[in-house]
Amino acid sequence: MELVTWRAAVALIVVGAALPASAGEVIRVPGDVPSLTVAIDEIDDGGVIEMVAGTYPAPSGGFIIGNPGKSFTIRPVTGATVVLSGSGSQPVVRFINSTPDLDSTVVFEDLVFADGYSTLNGAAGGVTLEGAAATFMRCLFRDNQSQASTTGGGGTAVFLDSVAHFVDCEWRDNIAKNEGAGLRVGEGSAAYVHRGRFIGNLANPPGHRNTATGGGLHVTDSVVWVSNSRFEGNQAGYAGGGAYVLGTWQSPYTTPHAELLLANCSFVDNHSSRHYSVPAVGPTEGGGVNIEDQTKVTILNSRFLENSADLGGCMSIYRSEVQVADSVFLGNRAVGVGLGTGFGGCFKVSAADLPSEPANFPSADFSLADSYVQCRHGSTGAAAQVGAALWAGGDICRAYGIGGCATAGTLAFNRTVAAIDDVVFADCDADWGGVAQQGHAGAVAATLVDFELTDSLVTACDAIGTGASGGGMWILFQCDARIAGTTFAANSAEGYGGAIFTLGANIDLTGLQLFDNEFSRGVSEPETSSYGAAMFAAPFAGTYGNLSNVPVSGTLSNSVLSRNVGMPLFDDDRNPQPINAVQYIDNDFHNATFGDRIYRHSSAGSKTPSEVNSLVITHSGVDKGSGNSWLSSPPVLGSLLAAPSRILPVTAAGDDEPVTASYLGYAWDGGSATLDGASVSGGRGWGPTGVGTHTLDVAGTEFQATVGVGPAPGAALTASPAVITSGQPVALGWSTQAGTYLGAFIDHGVGRRAASSGQVTVYPTATTTYRLYVATAEGGATAEVTVLVDEQPTAVFADGFESGDLSAWSAAVGG
């Protein structure tokens, strides 16, 4: 919705034709000059080039804007459709400054850039910026392609310290054989995209580079903010079907060298998939987004549906810092089959250095909060071979020498960090697919990770196949794992650990609910081989690179384990080493499979809770527990989570839904249940929900979750005074009217703004329309204001503004 203050409304009415279209010089093509090339040469600073309807073929090398030293606008006459065409043989537009000039901004409005073609490295088939600043309003980039030998974008390339601002633009059916089929941003540039649509762009045409990346968007060593935008049906031959971002390593390594913000965006049906004509160099990665190296990425209030790649179906993260919150993930899939592939149906987070690299680079840092992950959705069944929702691994090359690295760094440095809070993992299955050593981690797999999971729900997640382990969680190889306040319900594994499997790690598990989890679903097994319906814990007795014989340690405390099908707890141990040093403290148990025996040790046998309290393992001296209790009847247990916890009133451009969605995940045991007054059955459930407080009632005990409404972002931009003579100072004032502020940008050389509101002084030498873009967690918002230079309105005000002072002009525009 557009909101205009009453003073601005009066101003627009009074000055009429003097303001929007005809301020400054206007050159019409072909009426005043024969071609766009001539118009670009002749237009004055602040002028407007208007083009009549038609298709304008680009000359050899494209329409060139070279070192213009002026700002101007190119647009159609009112109501016309103008296509700037490369005719399938030429680039469309190249805007190049020999040295960067961000004060001279060219504005492109309502234009179609089509059928461009480039074989030049560093140039797009459509529009290329080098050291330049441009604003694109309501433009379409379609059917452009780059067939360069090494690098170049399809629709748009923003290179060499350029700045580009895109509002209501679309990239459709563009092609690049190397990278960035839709939009390519690189080499210290910045791009700001609001309400964009990236549809059907391909970085995997026949004969593509075997490491082709970034079907919709490709970012290298640059800053890109994207809000309220949709990525659909884009593909890359190697990584980043929807988007790819890379920051190349430069000291200090803790300072990001590339940044990507995605706020209120949708990624649907994007894929990393090589063309059959191209030899494989390894598994494809990051069907939705691929993130690498010295990069910081923030993803907020976004949606990822049915994206796929061999690894990291939705997102692949390598040695980068990534924050994800308030988002929804449905039906993403790692499609790789075989050893070394098929990891991370939704997320793959990794950190292994290469032996050729000169430094031990920082490992990945990943967080996921207030989000909903459902793997089985639409056409997606089992979502991965390992880690259907998340696979995370540390730097095993530096820590263990796996891959040939010289070992370096501490365990703490080499661990990847993964922190998860208030997340629902529902119906996530890992299936071995007949491949040995696969089928692990229905929900989450972690290897050499500093791992934290809090206040979450893991339900109906399964590890399927011979030897498959960890229906809910798979924690290995010197992980330091802390899990608190989380429910594991109705998960299963065919091999080991229906809910949790841990091997050679340290665990601190507290305040958990583990119920209705099952070992070997649907198959009865003897007590001696019932390997942990709730948890299986074992030391690592073997070698992995230079790692060998690692104990398992830690505690399970203050938790409730009820009606798990099979032996709830199984401890494998080794004599004399490595040992199992896990302890069980102050837990409550109820089970039916083997009477009141709830724990089995590989050498000490089966135990009741009271026997666990007095159990000391002879060969290791480990005291296995204290304070554990048997419950004579099943306790009332329940969990109800809403994620995201807010619905937003605006969504991405091109989305079918007018608002975003929230989902409920729930599980219960110990009595009959209702959800918002309606009977529910089966012990668990999940699905979309609406605004309000929701109640899961289990035998009279209530569990509640609330879904609220977030703000529609808004912004305002003012100019004081708004009519000047050339070179006079003007105070531009910007403000964020709604939304959780992240940053702002104003075009025409003003640049990024750190504060949510403020003023900046500008000295325009020609009539200029300044455009504000504000990024918030809930999406973006835009506003604009025009400063008239050496021009006067055609009328004066009779309402107190007789002087003609337009200093109070302002406009506020919503997202």
Model description:
Helix content is 4%, strand content 45%. With 815 residues, it is mainly beta. The strands form eleven sheets. The chain has a 35-stranded parallel β-sheet that branches. The chain has an 18-stranded mixed β-sheet. It is elongated and about 95 Å long. The N and C termini lie close together (7 Å). The protein contains five helices and 85 strands. Helix 2 links the parallel strand 2 (26-29) and strand 3.
Concise synopsis of the structure shown:
By secondary structure, this protein is mainly β.
Structure keywords:
35-stranded parallel sheet; disordered C terminus; 815 residues; single chain; 5 helices; mainly beta; Pectate Lyase C-like
List the helices and strands and how they pair.
Blueprint lengths: L1 E2 L2 H10 L10 E4 L6 H7 L4 E5 L2 E4 L5 E4 L5 E5 L5 E4 L7 E4 L8 E5 L1 E4 L2 E2 L8 E4 L2 E5 L2 E3 L2 E2 L9 E4 L3 E5 L2 E3 L2 E2 L6 E4 L3 E5 L2 E3 L2 E2 L13 E4 L2 E5 L2 E3 L2 E2 L6 E5 L10 E6 L2 E3 L2 E2 L16 E5 L1 E6 L2 E3 L2 E2 L5 E4 L2 E5 L2 E3 L2 E2 L12 E4 L14 E10 L15 E4 L2 H5 L10 H4 L1 E11 L2 E3 L12 E4 L1 E6 L2 E3 L2 E3 L8 E4 L3 E5 L2 E3 L2 E2 L6 E4 L2 E5 L2 E3 L2 E2 L15 E4 L1 E5 L2 E4 L1 E6 L2 E3 L6 E3 L8 E6 L2 E3 L8 E3 L3 E3 L1 H5 L11 E2 L2 E2 L6 E7 L2 E2 L14 E8 L3 E3 L2 E3 L3 E6 L2 E7 ...
Parallel strand pairs: 2-3, 3-6, 4-7, 5-8, 6-9, 7-10, 8-12, 9-13, 10-14, 11-15, 12-16, 13-17, 14-18, 15-19, 16-20, 17-21, 18-22, 20-24, 21-25, 22-26, 23-27, 24-28, 25-29, 26-30, 27-31, 28-32, 29-33, 30-34, 32-36, 33-37, 34-38, 35-39, 36-40, 37-41, 38-41, 40-42, 41-43, 42-45, 43-46, 43-47, ...
Antiparallel strand pairs: 1-85, 58-59, 65-66, 69-71, 71-74, 72-73, 72-75, 75-76, 77-79, 77-85, 79-82, 80-81, 80-83, 83-84
